[in-house]
From TrEMBL:
This is Large ribosomal subunit protein eL24. It comes from Nitrosopumilus zosterae. PANTHER family: 60S RIBOSOMAL PROTEIN L24, RIBOSOMAL PROTEIN L24. Keywords: Metal-binding, Ribonucleoprotein, Ribosomal protein, RNA-binding, rRNA-binding, Zinc, Zinc-finger. GO terms for biological process: translation. The gene is rpl24e.
Length: 66
């Protein structure tokens, strides 16, 4: 029995098998969300996860450019 663990597309936390939300877009991309909080922040509010302290993608001191 394997556990399907995907990272959340917004906060980068793991989404275990049987939990979270999967969204399939018209262009064929699949988005995984661990909670409705992440889904609303990404799709409805269009926020950048690098600017929010509660996400794992947060960058202290501002967003760095490559």
């Amino acid at each position: 029995m394997s556990l399907l663990v995907k990272p959340c597309n917004f906060c980068d936390r793991p989404v275990a098998k049987g939990s979270g939300t999967m969204l399939a877009k018209n262009d064929g991309t699949v988005l995984w969300f661990c909670s409705s909080k992440c889904k609303k922040n990404m799709l409805d509010l269009k926020r950048d996860p690098r600017k929010l302290k509660w996400t794992k993608k947060y960058v202290k001191g501002g967003i760095r450019k490559k």
